[in-house]
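Much of the work behind modern protein science is quiet bookkeeping, done one molecule at a time. The protein below has been through that process, and both of its lines are reproduced in full.
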Amino acid sequence: MIKVWNRRDQWDQIDSIEAFCLTICRNLALDKMKRMDNQNQSLIEGEHDAPDNSYTSNPEEQAMQQDRIALIRRLINSLPEKQRSVMQLRDVEGKSYKEIAKIMAISEDQVKVNIFRARQAIRQKYLETEEYGL
């Protein structure tokens, strides 16, 4: 509202004040989303805080935990682009299904399907890797 009020001297030149207000709101929302996206973490290794290993005093367990984290990162990176993006938006950045659908320009049902398939693929590949050789 402040932006609209600050341009009150231009109101006579504007054809539709309603459209003008909606455009300002839309642009402010997009700017806020861009600022929020700049604050989000990515899946790139080394940009995240290390997990709290205080509960595991055993160096072997710490090494195994680090290997599991590296494996999961590799599995996530091996997903198809759409599944990887949807999974990052939901599980890493904590966005809602509705927000993801809007960002990705797909329906909420497609978001849910892609998240389900991504999680299933990671679970399947993780279990295959963990059970290899047993």
User: Anything to note?
Assistant: The chain has six helices and no strands. The mean pLDDT is 82. The two ends are 65 Å apart (CA to CA).
